[in-house]
């Protein structure tokens, strides 16, 4: 559409060219920005040659419009397929950041709005990704991973099939790029192995052949990368094992494993690698993930029926959606780990949700797949490596259903027994041992009190009972007839919420660092655990499976009395994380850097030697010619692991006492900071330092506030925070957003450090009201009277300016949602800075009683301490409040105070307001509409509102006759009475009647009153004065 056409047609609601929006949805800010940038761009490059277009683009870039030009070209690519190649070439011509800015916007669209995109925009977006990959753009890995999440399992709609076909075509066409992007290979194989079972029908033959060809070629040629998937790769291969193309693959896996990799010794080794939760997340769309998170964190059990129906209708309504349910179960078990507060609440428990999911599976094959997803971690459970939260839902589902739904309990226990024996017969005894460990740990932690209800619920099936007894620890079962009576056995589990929050670590999501394990200890028959990290698992020696079953020494008293959780058992996994293991990233480092890291590790607590070694390491980095992102990432891994003790300690023991007074000179991390501060911005060696710090920040965000601490304390620190600003640019983060995130982490880790940094942070929040509101909320939510007092003293001295006129209204509006104590501290900050009433008064009409009583109280206090006469605007805003709420006395109370203090001034202002309202045809409605046309001024009070407040004032105080007897007020009310409607006269009859009473009280001299009555010019003159003042 041309500019002239856009000007001639102005629809009530602009139609979006990118997204299919409902009638109640409006355009996103990003789309409006892109559309305006595109319009600007068209005005410069319409109907010109490509070379002339490039010249025009360079002119715009010279006007500091790089981002606007990029957004306009990107919008043209998405909406104009015929000119998209031209716009793409223009975009590559002007880009200076590897398209990082545009790819960030594109990634946001993929995450938040892809499901709503119209077909043309969706096709063009994937076309843009294809061209970016062909051009070798370096930031496409994350976007491609996010796009995999829109290759939906259980969706055979034409739109989803097209997305899947396009994605796999892009990968097949750009195989060299994919092989260089090794981190993408396991995710792509995982995604398409899950999608193949959906495409077995004849209409999807071509797509299925592409998927099969891609997966088999990757598994055979890049098995080392595919093995990062871990044991769930075996589970997925079982799901496609019936296809003839995978039969040969299975034969080689079982009989000739070295054909995949010389280091691969067999399927046991693959089963010993834990699958990262990132793979499970990659199979759940962003929309479904948000719904699941809301359901399992916020919805109470009593309301679950409505929300489960809602989830089924929104996400699981198609017949083919059954296949996604196994991914949902796997995601809930491995990724949704509620904290102790959620576990202690009446929110829908995970086991209940999983039972409901399986109850909706009409396909028996998919029902078995859901059970396999539920119990798969049991088969390879390692108490040293795995989280109890992964296996807890399976036990609780069987435990809670043994009375209400005994068939569900029997079905789950029968499946566990069969899968342990049949899934991998060669490792049968090892898997039995793992299941015993799982039962034993959950008994020790008190997940359930006893296993007796489970075993007794299947007593009718002797074979199942015998096989199940073989899976539980010896002595862990005593029949209810032999032990405690049924009535005394509680059915509610003693879950982890009974422990302190600092002990119950298994209620949080386990860190992926737990993938790094030590050499296996002697624990009976088990599969050898190959040490692995999610990114690069290695394939070692052939694991052996011990055929001798272990006799567990657990005493039978375990089921008589719940075992007390041992603190050592809970913190051992944490101690294990602290052990320094940098072998994996160390092997990828440049040979010149590797010995220095090993020396730093050997120096251990010799900080001075470590600092010297760090300086040598930095000099070696400066000499390297190819210190790229990969090298920086490996080095950052090593350093973050070595510096972990620093990240886990506090710098301040109290407000004025530091844990280590000489920390800046005694830790190698600050050597990096010092070099960064001392290196000029134009020096080429500054870039490797920023790159290294950016990679370290990605792995450990505490780097951010530690850098702030160094800049605040060190003599070489830059008070303008330029190193921190440069780090934010390298990370492509907004400065204020990054500051808020770092300070929020700092206040949780070290409260006194936060308030030590606070004075230097105030000046950095200058423009964005939203970030300033978040920053102030961090202050008031974490302070106490002692810390707030010192900060208030700094504000009152005038050295700091926390509030500014242009951002204060946004902060004020946000504060209304804070807790009472937080608002109390906030208004103390407002009072300390002596914020003028002009900045605050715009909030007065928006305050609701009793929702905003904190703000109303403090505004009334500030009004009582004003140092100037009340303005026309202040009185107008007070009169704009609703006078019909009888419980809200704030406005009438403020009117009484102002009248008592400034009686003549208030009388003039109210008389002027009344004269304005009746000055135009004597109609309050016409006055209101005329006021509505003035956009600069706030909405004026109506005549009914002003009279209502005066009437309430008449009833509120016994001294009202003094105010109403003033000539200005009396004349204005008489004028209103003569010009208002009969309905207004009846509504405020008592208010108008007070005029006659006051006239009679003044005296019997009627002639004097007759002289006064015609004088109507006084209020009009006042009104003119007021208008000029406005």
Automatic annotation (TrEMBL):
In terms of InterPro entries, this protein maps to: HEAT_Ints3_C, INTS3, INTS3_N
Q: Does the keyword Nucleus feature in the UniProt annotation?
A: yes
Please state the protein's primary subcellular location: cytoplasm
Ranges of Polar residues compositional bias? 533-559
Segments of skewed composition (Low complexity): 1014-1030
Would you tell me the Gene Ontology cellular component terms?
A: cytoplasm; nucleus
At the top level, the lineage of the source is: Eukaryota
Q: What does this protein do?
A: Component of the integrator complex, a multiprotein complex that terminates RNA polymerase II (Pol II) transcription in the promoter-proximal region of genes. The integrator complex provides a quality checkpoint during transcription elongation by driving premature transcription termination of transcripts that are unfavorably configured for transcriptional elongation: the complex terminates transcription by (1) catalyzing dephosphorylation of the C-terminal domain (CTD) of Pol II subunit Polr2A/Rbp1 and Spt5, and (2) degrading the exiting nascent RNA transcript via endonuclease activity.
Q: Where is each Integrator complex subunit 3 N-terminal domain found?
A: 66-466
The keyword Protein transport is annotated on this UniProt entry: no
Compartments in which it is found: Cytoplasm; Nucleus
Q: Which family does it belong to?
A: Belongs to the Integrator subunit 3 family.
The protein's matches in Pfam families, at most eight in alphabetical order, are given as: HEAT_Ints3_C, Ints3_N
Full protein name: SOSS complex subunit A homolog
Identify the stretch(es) annotated as Disordered.
Answer: 520-560, 1011-1030
Q: Which PANTHER family match?
A: INTEGRATOR COMPLEX SUBUNIT 3 (PTHR13587)
Which source organism?
Trichuris muris (Mouse whipworm)
Kindly state which keywords UniProt assigns to this record, in alphabetical order: Cytoplasm, Nucleus
Indicate the segments forming the Ints3-like C-terminal domain, all copies.
603-993
């Amino acid at each position: 559409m041309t500019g002239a056409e856009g000007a001639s047609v102005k629809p009530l609601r602009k139609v979006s060219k990118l997204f299919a929006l409902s009638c109640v949805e409006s355009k996103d800010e990003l789309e409006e920005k892109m559309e305006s940038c595109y319009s600007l761009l068209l005005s410069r490059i319409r109907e010109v040659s490509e070379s002339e277009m490039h010249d025009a683009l360079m002119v715009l870039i010279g006007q500091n419009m790089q981002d606007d030009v990029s957004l306009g070209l990107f919008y043209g690519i998405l909406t104009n397929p015929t000119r998209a190649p031209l716009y793409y070439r223009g975009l590559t011509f002007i880009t200076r950041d590897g398209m990082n800015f545009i790819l960030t916007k594109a990634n946001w669209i993929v995450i938040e709005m892809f499901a709503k995109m119209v077909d043309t925009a969706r096709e063009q977006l994937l076309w843009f990704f294809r061209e970016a990959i062909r051009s070798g753009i370096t930031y496409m890995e994350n976007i491609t991973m996010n796009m995999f999440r829109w290759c939906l399992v259980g969706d055979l709609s034409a739109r989803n099939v097209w997305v899947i076909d396009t994605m796999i075509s892009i990968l097949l066409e750009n195989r060299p790029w994919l092989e260089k992007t090794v981190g993408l290979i396991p995710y792509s194989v995982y995604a398409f192995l899950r999608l193949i079972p959906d495409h077995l029908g004849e209409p999807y033959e071509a797509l299925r052949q592409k998927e099969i060809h891609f997966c088999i070629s990757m598994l055979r040629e890049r098995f080392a990368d595919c093995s990062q998937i871990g044991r769930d790769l075996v589970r997925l291969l079982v799901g496609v094992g019936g296809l003839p193309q995978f039969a040969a693959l299975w034969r080689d896996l079982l009989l000739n494993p070295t054909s995949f990799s010389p280091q691969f010794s067999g399927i046991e080794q693959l089963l010993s690698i834990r699958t990262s939760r990132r793979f499970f997340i990659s199979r759940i769309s962003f929309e479904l993930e948000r719904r699941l998170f809301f359901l399992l964190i916020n919805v109470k059990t009593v309301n679950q029926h409505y929300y489960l129906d809602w989830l089924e209708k929104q996400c699981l309504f198609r017949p083919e959606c059954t296949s996604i349910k196994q991914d949902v179960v796997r995601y809930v078990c491995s990724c949704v780990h509620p904290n102790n507060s959620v576990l202690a609440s009446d929110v829908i428990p995970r086991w209940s949700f999983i039972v409901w999911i399986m109850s909706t599976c009409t396909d028996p094959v998919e029902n078995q797949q859901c059970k396999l997803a539920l119990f798969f971690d049991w088969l390879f459970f390692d108490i040293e490596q795995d989280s109890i939260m992964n296996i807890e839902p399976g036990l609780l589902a069987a435990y809670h259903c043994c009375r209400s739904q005994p068939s569900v309990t029997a079905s789950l226990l029968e499946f566990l027994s069969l899968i342990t024996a049949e899934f991998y017969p060669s490792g049968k005894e090892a898997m039995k041992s793992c299941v015993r460990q799982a039962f034993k740990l959950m008994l020790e932690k008190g997940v359930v009190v006893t296993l007796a209800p489970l075993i007794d619920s299947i007593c009718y099936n002797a074979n199942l009972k015998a096989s199940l007894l073989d899976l539980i620890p010896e002595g862990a079962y005593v029949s209810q007839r032999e032990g405690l009576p049924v009535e005394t056995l509680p059915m509610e589990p003693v879950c982890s919420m009974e422990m302190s929050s600092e002990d119950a670590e298994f209620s949080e999501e386990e860190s992926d660092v737990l993938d790094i394990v030590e050499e296996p200890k002697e624990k009976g028959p088990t599969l050898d655990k190959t040490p692995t990290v999610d990114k690069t698992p290695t394939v070692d020696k052939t694991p052996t499976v011990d055929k001798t079953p272990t006799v567990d020494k657990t005493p039978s008293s375990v089921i008589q009395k719940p075992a007390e959780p041992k603190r050592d058992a809970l913190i051992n996994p944490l101690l294990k994380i602290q052990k320094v293991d940098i072998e994996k990233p160390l092997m990828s480092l440049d040979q010149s850097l590797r010995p220095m890291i090993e020396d730093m590790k050997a120096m251990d607590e010799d900080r001075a030697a470590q600092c010297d070694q760090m300086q040598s390491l930095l000099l070696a980095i400066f000499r390297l010619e190819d210190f790229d992102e990969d090298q920086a990432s490996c080095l950052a891994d090593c350093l973050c692991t070595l510096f972990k003790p620093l990240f886990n300690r506090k710098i301040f023991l109290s407000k004025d006492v530091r844990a280590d007074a000489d920390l800046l000179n005694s830790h190698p991390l600050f050597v990096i900071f010092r070099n960064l501060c001392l290196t000029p911005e134009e020096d080429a060696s500054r870039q490797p330092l920023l790159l290294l710090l950016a990679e370290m920040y990605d792995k450990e965000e505490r780097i951010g506030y530690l850098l702030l601490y160094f800049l605040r304390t060190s003599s070489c620190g830059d008070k303008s925070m330029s190193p921190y600003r440069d780090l934010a640019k390298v990370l492509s983060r907004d400065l204020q957003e990054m500051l808020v995130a770092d300070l929020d982490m700092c206040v949780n880790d070290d409260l006194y450090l936060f308030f030590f940094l606070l004075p230097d942070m105030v000046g950095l929040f200058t423009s964005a009201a939203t970030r300033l509101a978040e920053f102030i909320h961090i202050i008031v939510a974490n302070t106490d009277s002692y810390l707030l007092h010192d900060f208030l003293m700094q504000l009152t001295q005038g050295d700091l300016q926390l509030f500014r006129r242009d951002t204060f209204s946004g902060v004020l509006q946000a504060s209304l949602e804070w807790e009472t104590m937080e608002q109390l501290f906030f208004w103390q900050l407002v009072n300390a800075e002596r914020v003028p009433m002009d900045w605050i008064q715009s909030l007065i009409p928006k305050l609701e009683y009793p929702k905003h009583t904190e703000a109303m109280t403090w505004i009334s206090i500030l009004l009582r301490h004003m140092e100037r006469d009340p303005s026309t605007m202040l009185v107008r805003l007070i009169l704009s409040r609703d006078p019909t709420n009888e419980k809200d006395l704030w406005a009438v109370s403020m009117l009484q105070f102002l009248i008592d203090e400034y009686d003549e001034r208030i009388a003039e202002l109210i008389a002027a307001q009344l004269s304005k309202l009746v000055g135009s045809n004597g109609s309050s409605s016409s006055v209101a509409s005329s006021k509505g046309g003035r956009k600069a001024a706030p909405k004026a009070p109506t005549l009914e509102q002003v009279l209502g407040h005066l009437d309430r004032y008449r009833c509120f105080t016994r001294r009202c006759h003094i105010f109403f007897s003033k000539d200005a007020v009396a004349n204005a009310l008489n004028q209103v009475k003569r010009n208002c409607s009969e309905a207004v006269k009846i509504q405020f009859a008592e208010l108008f009647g007070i005029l006659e009473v006051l006239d009679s009280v003044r005296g019997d001299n009627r002639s004097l009153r007759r002289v006064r009555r015609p004088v109507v010019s006084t209020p009009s003159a006042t009104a003119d004065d007021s208008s000029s003042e406005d």
